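Sharing a chain and its predicted structure for anyone who wants a worked example. Both blocks are below, sequence first, tokens second.
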Amino acid sequence: MNLNNNPYKVIVRTIVQHLLYWLLVVLFFGFIWGSYDNDYSRNLSIQLFSLPARMFVVYVTIYWVFPLYFKTKKKRIFLIYLLILVVATVLIQRPIVQFYVAPHYLQGWETANFFALTVLMNTALDVNITALIPLGFSFFELWKKNENPVNKLEANFILLKVEKTYQKIYLTDIKYIESLKNYIRVVCVSKDIKVLKSLLSVEKELPKKDFIRVHRSFIVRKACIQTFSPSKLKIEQNTIPIGRKYKEFVKQQLGYI
């Protein structure tokens, strides 16, 4: 099992990353505002009371609004929900400030003006600014997934760089791929292609339901396998060895009993 894909480790890593992010947010804004009046402990406490509204806008945006509406190209609805979230965060934060933060930490402030338009705008900016980094990261991940020409798997083909040009190789044309040190040989139905690329990198681009790694030097398309045994398989006139490291996995994938 690849430890990087272990669900437990992924969950733990995600929780740790989120905790570190919110800790940095509190420390950053606490010290920025604390440098204004030299009361760092008070400003750090105020930042803690801003977390409910900030967490609300961040998690609703990146786990619901962004994947449900932006990724599916419903951008108008996405913008409408962002505006609704801005209003919602103000409605969450203002009562906290009005009824707890102001009496305990801002005794000298005019609380009667806390619902003035300028104050509401400042609250909206103060709360929602923390969503910029997570949302920006989500945009970047989506862009990287959609725009990278080398790793992009479109429909039923992959792009391989042969010399100075990219060639479209249909998955159904591939019979098997062989590693040749720094190169790979892609054996297709009508031709062989030699590419400066590692077997591991091309393996990541291939759909696991159609292709299987059977040896440190070979990846084969399952549909092309004609006969197989625990030690080897055959694709037309080509006999391909099954490595000891991959034997049990191959038997499981091919239904060998």
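Comments welcome. Residues 150-154 have pLDDT under 50 and may be disordered.
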